[in-house]
Design a protein that fits this description.
This protein has 601 residues and is of the alpha+beta class. It folds into two domains: 304 residues, no CATH class; 160 residues, Glutaredoxin (3-Layer(aba) Sandwich), CATH 3.40.30.10. 32% of the residues lie in helices and 15% in strands. The strands form seven sheets. It has a four-stranded antiparallel sheet. Strands 17-16-19-20 form a four-stranded mixed sheet, covered by helices on one side. A hairpin with a 2-residue loop joins strand 19 and strand 20. It holds the Pfam family Thioredoxin.
């Protein structure tokens, strides 16, 4: 009898244990189901969406840092949170449990979306999400990652306090170490090489979104830097943070993109200086050496490494410190190799004398660090020898808003006066921003309807603003009625050497269409189709940010500068622009101005 009682108690105990384990392995949020799929990793199954599988190695990383991983294939890039079951589940989870839950679109399995973006053979695209729970809608911001040799890009979505990283695993942890990881979103993209022999991150995973469990709904850009840093020690030795080497003081004050001065920014697979530790790591070497203030400094210094809108959160008082100067130098040395810019070198022009991409700098209205950085750069740009040596090429700096007056006074260049090798644009002039036209649509609208609305909007907008460009507008409309990927090889010989042209593009960093254009110009650079591109952000005027309930057919302005017989001309075009339309644009004005050979002329 006692044996039976013991057996019954054992059965009950095992049943309770199994039920507890089952609850841990499976959790349901509304229509969204998370389940452990043996041998395949996690499966995220939401009604109406595909099942995305992530391997167990990913889960090991996720469990290490108490993360939540989500990934979906969604047929629309814009939809209503009220009608989409996946987004309703995500929103409910976000509101109830205060987890950061954002979906990643798989473009490779979504050819319709790829074609609608007119990106052609452009697989290195990263899409991030900005969720505003105060509205019904959610919209995407398109960021493009170029697979350039020796170039790693760190891009940031400035509206949602979400950071994106693309690069080697070693660089990832070096940056991770310098910031509060609770606010980090990471995409791994195997299109960009990891340059590592380790199998910590499976190469067959196209992209992984990592979302830290933390309520960031009340965190703004301004107060993000003031959040306390809580360093989390990993339970898995493979992902152990290294607080001993990678000397942080040396990193901040003397680092030129190297690990302890010897790495030269390359990840060659050796993990001695990496912040990721393997099984044989002596964990006794790790220790806490920094004070809380130093930890906060490290968090702030991380923002120096961003590629776009660098250092928006960095306090002004930090700019005066030597380590910030060294870190600024590190930006250019690390992300522009082999085009290294020595900020203290008076012979800066030697680095770019024969380069197709001369120099690219992003300036923002309230980016005080840009003042400091650009002041060092303009000393070189103002060098007479620099201009004399490179008089066939365009040298440029473009400023937005109040920065313009700073450059105007510094360079002693009269307003609106354009030098043969230098162009300065005043973004305060109203003609550089034109109100966009609006298109209202819902998530059930198919592509043909969307294209029709966009064409009609483009017709109305073009009719009211552009009266001389009828031929070009017809080409533009024809292209959208029959969208095809553009064949760059067809135009490569014709427009291979566009050093007589200065393409000036004004766009909004966070506008969905502006980002399309940005990628188009990036592609022109990488394909040697243009050798000087000037870009500028207009972060304050985009109506897109102020009208989340509307889909905006945003029509930015493109200004083309070209020379005929030594005389500089400029033409303006308003329209939804990509690489294809830029080529047509050059074609059209070549015809209108009887330019038989734009290169020779």
């Amino acid at each position: 009898m006692s044996k039976c009682r013991t057996l019954l108690q054992l059965i009950i105990f095992l049943s309770l244990l199994l039920s507890i384990l089952a609850k841990k392995k499976k959790a349901t949020v509304d229509n969204l189901t998370f389940s452990k799929d043996p041998g395949l990793g996690f499966s995220f199954n939401a009604k109406g969406s595909n099942i995305i599988r992530i391997t167990d190695q990913t889960i090991a990383l996720v469990n290490d840092f108490n993360l939540t991983v989500l990934r979906f294939s969604i047929p629309y890039c814009y939809f209503s949170l009220q009608t989409d079951p996946v987004m309703k589940a995500l929103t409910k989870e976000y509101q109830n449990n205060k987890n950061v839950l954002i979906a990643d679109i798989d473009l490779h399995s979504n050819p319709v979306l790829r074609q609608s973006l007119q990106i052609g053979n452009y697989p290195e695209m990263v899409i991030s999400t900005n969720m505003d729970l105060k509205t019904e809608h959610m919209y995407y911001k398109y960021h493009y990652s170029l697979n350039l040799p020796g170039v790693k890009r760190i891009m940031r979505n400035i509206q949602s306090n979400i950071f994106q990283f693309i690069g080697s695993r070693k660089e990832l942890v070096r940056l991770w170490k310098k910031m509060d990881t609770r606010y980090l979103l990471i995409y791994y993209d195997p299109n960009l090489p990891f340059n590592s022999t380790s199998d910590d991150i499976p190469q067959n995973i196209r992209s992984i979104g990592i979302f830290f469990k933390q309520d960031v709904s009340s965190v703004s850009i301004n107060n993000l830097k003031d959040l306390p840093l809580k360093k989390k020690k990993s339970s898995n030795p493979r992902f152990q943070f290294n607080d001993h080497d990678d000397n942080d003081d040396n990193d901040n004050e003397n680092d030129n993109g190297n690990d302890n001065g010897n790495d030269n920014g390359n990840d060659n697979g050796h993990q001695e200086n990496s912040a990721i530790r393997h099984h044989n790591l002596n964990q006794n070497n790790t220790k806490e050496e920094e004070s809380e203030e130093e930890e906060k400094n490290k968090v702030r210094l991380f923002f120096i490494h961003r590629y776009d809108n660098i250092l928006k959160e960095l306090p002004i008082k930090k700019f005066e410190k030597v380590k910030t100067v060294s870190s600024a130098k590190k930006i250019f040395e690390k992300y522009y190799k082999p085009k290294i810019i020595e900020l203290s070198d008076s012979t800066i022009y030697k680095h770019f004398q024969n380069d197709s991409l001369i120099f690219l700098i992003f300036l923002d209205t309230d980016d005080h660090y840009t003042y400091f950085l650009t002041e060092k750069l303009l000393i070189e740009l103002n060098n007479e020898e620099f201009f004399k040596t490179n008089n066939d090429l365009f040298k440029f700096v473009i400023a937005t808003r109040d920065l313009f007056h700073y450059f105007e006074n510094y360079l002693k260049i009269p307003k609106n006066e354009q030098y043969p090798t230098f162009t300065l644009i005043d973004m305060n002039q109203e003609q550089f921003f034109t109100p966009p036209s609006f298109i209202q649509f819902n998530s059930t609208m198919d592509r043909s309807e969307l294209v029709r609305l966009r064409i009609n909007s483009l017709k109305r907008f073009a009719k009211s603003i552009i009266t001389k460009n009828e031929l070009f507008i017809q080409k533009q409309l024809k292209k959208y009625q029959n969208p095809n990927f553009f064949d760059f090889a067809k135009w490569k010989d014709k427009y291979l050497n566009l050093n007589k042209y200065l393409l000036v593009l004004f766009w909004n960093h966070s506008c969905i269409f502006c980002s399309q254009i940005r990628a188009s110009f990036d592609y022109l650079i990488t394909q040697n189709l243009a050798n000087t591109i000037v870009k500028s952000f207009d972060l304050d005027n985009c109506v897109f940010e102020k009208s989340l309930n509307n889909f905006i057919d945003y029509l930015p302005k493109v200004v083309l500068y070209y020379k005929i017989d030594g005389i500089e001309h400029s033409v303006e075009y308003f329209g939804e622009t990509d690489v294809c339309s830029i080529i047509h644009f050059l074609d059209y004005y070549q015809t209108q101005n009887n330019i038989t050979n734009p290169i020779k002329n």
